[in-house]
Amino acid sequence: MNLSEKDQLYNWHPYTQHKTTGLLPAIVKGEGALLWEDSGKEYIDAIASWWVNPFGHSNKVIADAIYQQLTTLEHVLFGGFTHNRAVELSEKLLAILPSNQKKIFYSDNGSTAVEVALKGALQYYYNKGEKRTKVIAFEDAFHGDTFGAMAASGITFYTEAFQGSMLEVVRIPVPTAGNEERSLNALRELTATEEYAAFIFEPLVQGAAGMVMYPAEVLDQMIAICRKHQVFAIADEVMTGFGKTGKTFASDYLVNKPDMMCLSKALTGGTIPMAITTFTQEVFDGFYNEDVNKALFHGHTFTANPTCCAAAIASIGLLETPEMQHNIVRINTKHLAFEAQIKQHPKVQTTRVLGVIFALEIKTEGQESYYGGMRNKLYNFFIENGVILRPVGNIVYIIPPYIMTDEQLDRVYSVIERAVEMV
């Protein structure tokens, strides 16, 4: 029995209907932008393994930082203690985050980062004795798979089995071209009721919805509306953070900064799970009280794990190098050139680029489902041709590691062109 067969016998994979899924490729090695199957087949990882790995697989800088930390202090509980790596990482983050962010709360993954933000917003008003129990989110949003994050998400097949078991979230249109006023008016109407604690959003790019993009200018207006009515603005930067949009954070495009930010994925360079929720001083002060019951009673066993912190410190150091900043610009330039070429194709509906993110929408007869026939056909074609891409319905996107070479990018573009011709 080979590795893939054993995997099928033992393991339950995410977002997978095993009844209709065959054997999965068994990856045994990674280096740079490449992964290798146990058979020796090579793949280009064109989505940075779910957007987490901007500096390449088996990155020596991060690996060395992890090793050094493991031989010094692998873990210590963060409830009642602190350590040098958490303090150092928080200092580094606060130096690059929007200046209104003042407090760092550690957790385990993107979903829990969102949970912490939502609980922070709701309990802030509970602590004040005000009844604000609802949340505003965008249609087609995705914020994670834990219950609060699910409630804030708008992709129904992820959440429909749990309707009636989640907090109350009202969704408004995404302010894409032509929808700006509808979205703004909906937000004005809801915030004026003073029933809402927070507005959560993926800034500028909705990832799981198919890299749907909208302008910073309208998001600035939305945050201003929230501020007027004391509704906290939560930027879910789990996907967009750490360079994906061309700036360190998507929120760096904004004049009006969010009150809270959720970070994960590329935080540790794709090595160890870790997440962070950041807060303004105002939010923190809403919990700062002699009454212990007004504390934020949320925690995880591996909160601020020193080894994770060491990986994140090394990852931020890599992001800040001139070489990595040049790579982000280089990939954006390559994407724009490919977009100019492919958008003329008669089978291409739309294209969009922001930073290292590229997406194209293939024309279809009707509504293409998230895991429908076209998506599966495209996915299988990419895997057969040695490129890891995960289409969202009829939308193909690239979010490559920043160290991907021009030659590797050209190969990815070529395979996408062939795929468009195939469908």
From TrEMBL:
Transmembrane parts of this sequence: none
GO biological process per UniProt: biotin biosynthetic process
Any one GO CC term of the record: cytoplasm
Cofactors (names): pyridoxal 5'-phosphate
InterPro entries named among the record's database cross-references: Aminotrans_3, BioA, PyrdxlP-dep_Trfase, PyrdxlP-dep_Trfase_major, PyrdxlP-dep_Trfase_small
Binding-site residues for pyridoxal 5'-phosphate, renumbered to this chain: 110-111, 236, 300-301
Protein name: Adenosylmethionine-8-amino-7-oxononanoate aminotransferase
Organism expressing this protein natively: Flavobacterium silvisoli
